[in-house]
Amino acid sequence: MSWLQLRLDCEQSTAEELENRLLLAGALSVTLEDRADEPLLEPGVGETPLWQAVRITGLFPADANVDGIRDHLPQGSEPFIEILEDRDWAREWMQHYRPMRFGDRLRICPSWHSEAEDASVNLLLDPGLAFGTGTHPTTAMCLRALDLRVHGPLRVVDYGCGSGILGIAALRLGAAGLLAVDNDPQALTATRANAERNAIDPAAMELAFPENDAIAPWRGQADLVLANILAGPLERLADSLCDLLARGGEIILAGLLASQAQRLIDVYGENGVRLEVIEQEEEWVCLAGRHFP
Questions:
Q1: I want to staple 77 with a disulfide (CB 3.0 to 4.6 A). Which of 73, 153, 202, 220 is the partner?
Q2: How far is the C-alpha of 244 from the C-alpha of 197, rounded, in Å?
Q3: Does the pLDDT at position 211 exceed 80?
Q4: Which residue has the higher pLDDT, 269 or 291?
Q5: Is 143 helix (H, G, I), strand (E, B) or coil?
């Protein structure tokens, strides 16, 4: 079947009212998205932040009364209206998700795509419920950093593992062991599933929540610690992350903006880690440094 889609641009102050008006007009779903490339970082507890400039999309049955919908909208509103033809959306989506290369060796491939015939290290990963498919600049920079650094049986910690993409990539590149940590059970489930999809030996990987006793044996033992989260948590976790590093071990941090880098460089310097910016993509930066207590 077909659908009628109505799209409106508005400001943060009127977004909730417009959403309610579309629902009252009979919208089957209403979607709010950013229309000005504005990042929303680290909301407070109980907060539901919204962009300053918002695009609202309402989806209606194809036979919906357009004039009736307009009557529910504020006077002077000029919505963009179009008909969406029914498609096999799953197949359409799959056609646009292609393998991505990171560095000289590493490729991220959807599971339905045939593996490369060259010497690439292929990581099979489908977009899922947890963050991390390689498309975001912070993930891409971490993957390129791993491609350069993992050339032996390193012990790796992926803190805030999400989909598990970074830790599993490290194992595929030759790391000997992985501790994947996340406070979201869904992330640990996704990491386990992606490890199985990539034929990772279960004995080579441990999954843990941040307060799990399984973390204790890793203190002072990790050759490489990865954390692709946000600047605030990275600052609060500085003691814990540095405590995991073996002497001379390396840490890679991402999920922060260029304007936030110096603060983290200073904080981690107090923990004996000399960080520096190793790459910048758009407004995002990736930091790396070694532990010399």
A1: 73
A2: 28
A3: yes
A4: 269
A5: helix
